[in-house]
Amino acid sequence: MRGLTGKRVLITGGASGIGAATAARFLEEGSAVCVLDRDAKGRQQIQRQLPDLAGTVDADVSNRKQVQAAFTDAVRIMGGVDVVINNAGISIRHNFLDITSEEWDTVIAVNLTGVFYVAQTAARHMWERGVGVILQTASTNGIMGYPYYADYNATKAGVIELTRSMALELAPKIRVCAVAPGYVLTPMQRAEYSDEMLDEVNRKIPLRRHAKPEEIAALFAFLASDDAAYMTGQVYTIDGAETAGSLASR
Predict the structure, then answer these.
(1) Residue 183 lies inside a defined structural domain of this protein
(2) How far apart are CA 226 and CA 224, in angstroms?
(3) In the structure, what pLDDT confidence band is assigned to residue 185 with cuts at 50, 70 and 90?
């Protein structure tokens, strides 16, 4: 894709799943890539898997000081940051009536407050330079109603509105978009399924399968590229038509 060669890319939650696939895709495009993740073993593993990474940095995105320190490290490693993939997130499956205040606070802290900390830190750096792209991982959970994930759903809806607000305020210097995946078959997700459960979920999706992490990574790469230079303030759903027919909550 045009304009990605030499771009300096920071990916949060980049040690596994969608983040790791996205790191691999940007490396293929000739970008310099730094992964931010709080999982030390995950950082070591992704560095082995992708030896061309510029480096990895440690931070819990729910901690502003750690985010700022990690961003400073990423700038030192790559000489600057042109693109941020704001991807770190967690989920806890619970009945709404059983969600504890501690669980609620944890999910909000990582999935929404953490996205804000990363986005604001990146935007300040990019604003001074006059250019940049911030891409955020939302979810179809922020668009449709899904049972058992009330806290997660609320954070992803928040990411969508945060993205729109940022795009309005940061234009014309910085483009901001969100990607809203549906079901994605990451190794962690597959480990939670029996074969029967996987078949049942696939049956609800019009394309009859989960997305591959690499397919989400390809959308991130396109949105970061010069081919998407007029695209900002939007949320791009990638879900195999899952939400087109309101299948998500059946």
Answers:
(1) yes
(2) 7
(3) very high
The enclosing domain of 82 has a CATH number of 3.40.50.720
Q: Max CA-CA distance within the chain?
A: 52
| Catalytic site positions | 152
d(CA 241, CA 114): 29
The SS3 call for residue 64 is helix
From the CB of residue 172, how many other CB atoms can be counted at a distance below 10 Å? 8
Give the total number of structural domains in the chain.
1
Predicted structure pTM score: 0.96
Q: What are residue 83's DSSP bridge partners?
A: 9, 133
Output the pLDDT for position 249. Answer: 47
- How many other CB atoms sit within 10 Å of the CB of residue 28? 12
Residues 39-68: b if buried by 16+ CB within 10 A, e if exposed: eeebbeebeeebeebbbbbebbbbbbebbb
Give ∠ CA 48-51-56 in degrees, rounded to 5.
80
Q: Do the domain assignments include residue 243?
A: no
